[in-house]
Write a structure and sequence with these properties.
The chain is mainly α. It is built from 16 helices and two strands.
Amino acid sequence: MKLWRGLVDLVELREPATVLALFRICLGLMVLYTIGSVVWHDIVELVWMDAQHGGYRTLKGGNFLVQWLGGPSPDLVWALIAASLVAGLALTLGLGGRLVAFATLWLTMAVTDLNGQAGGSYDELLTSGLWILVLGPSSATWSADCRIRTGAWHDPSATSGSWVRWLGTFQVILAYCSTGFQKVSAYWTPAGGYSALYYILQQPSWQRWDMSAAAYVYPLTQLMSFATWSWEVGAPLVWLWLWLRHTRERGGRLRRWVLRWDLRAAFALFGLVLHLGVWATMEVGPFTWVTLSFYLCFFHPDEVQAAWARLRRRVAPAG
C-alpha cells in the first residue's frame, strides 16, 4: 500500500512544463533530421521505395497505415515524407498540441517502417518519445500555441504532471538496460578480452573514418568496453536513486548515504561523453541526438532553470 500510495502521489504531482517543452523541441528536430537527412542525401528511392520503383529490395508493404492507403507507391511515400516533415516542423514550433504530436508519431512510423533494414533502434526510441508528447501538454509553453493563447512564447504558470517526465527517464533507462543485457557476445566479457569496442571500430559499416589507429590505444578500448557494458546494465540504479531522492523526507541512514552523491548527474555525464565519442567515430545516424534528447527528463524544471540562470550570469558582461 505504501508503494501504491507513492505512485499515486507521483502521478498527482505537478511541475512547470519547461522540460517537457524542451523535450518536444528536441524530438521535433529529430523528426526533421531523421526524415530530412534521407531526402537531403537523395536516397529516398533507394531505401524507402520498392525494388520496382528504384529501391534496393522488395518491400513488404509498410505498416497498417501504408497498407490502408494502398501500399508504398512512389506518390504515397513522397506524400508521407512531406506530411511528416510538416508535422515535425509544427511539433518543433509547438503548434497543435497533442493532436500534432499524435500525427507526427504515426507519420514518422509510417515512413521509417517502410524498410526495416534502413533504420535503427533510434527510430523506436524516437517514436516512444513522441508517445510521451501525446500524453503530456508539451506545447503549454515555449510554443506557438502559448503565443496564440497568451501573447507570449513562454507561460511561467504552465504545468505538467511530473509522471510524464518520469516516463521519459524510464524509457531511456529501459533502452540502456535492455541493450546491455542483449550484449551476450564473449567479447564484452573477460573471456573475450573486452575487445568488443575495438572490433566494432574496425567494421567499415560503422566507421566514420579509418580507425586502425585504435590498435595503439587497445587497452583504452578494453576499458571502454567494460565501462559501457557496466554502465548500461547498471542504468536501473539511476531510477532507484531518483526514487530515493523523491522520497527523501522519509529519512533513513541508507537513503541519506546514497543521496550524498548525485548518481544521476554522473550517469548523464558518462552517457554524454560516450555518445559524443560514438558520434565522432561512427556513423550511427540520428542515434546520438535522439538518445541525448531524453537526458532532459532526468532533471526537474527548477534545476534546468537554475542552471540556465547560472550560465547567463557567467556569460553576462561585467557591466
